[in-house]
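ok so for the tutorial part 2 we go from a plain amino acid sequence to predicted structure tokens. step 1 is just haveing the sequence, like this:
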Amino acid sequence: MRLTKFTDLALRAVMRLAVSEQDDSATTREVAEAMAVPYAHMAKVVTRLQHLGVVEARRGRGGGLALTDVGRRASVGWLVRTLEGEEEVVACEGDPPCPLRAACRLRGALRSAQEAFYRTLDPLTVADLVESPTGPVLVSLSGRRTD
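step 2 — the prediction. this is what the tokens look like for a chain of 147 residues:
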């Protein structure tokens, strides 16, 4: 299974924000630069994460992005499911619809594989993703010192 670029960026953003200290909030631009992606893409991702209650954005002096408690404890499986939507791995009902759809066993097998993929991610939290060795690498991308 392959994740959309949007979900990939969202996971990287929450991981980056998970290593930010409260007094060292990152901006959307800083997260985009650290992850080497265009600002416009990251802005869309941050907006979606805000709507999910995973990220909080504060404006003005001392503002920036912060991972919420919900975001820190969020299941990676839940986050990926939510961002990816309910799309199936194959488009059996597409245009044109697959001629095998009425008697195909592949569709069910792929759906089971997709659910197994999500179940594997369910026990992981965002906080788990930033444990060593990942956390220190993310901190180095932020420009902060790790003394």
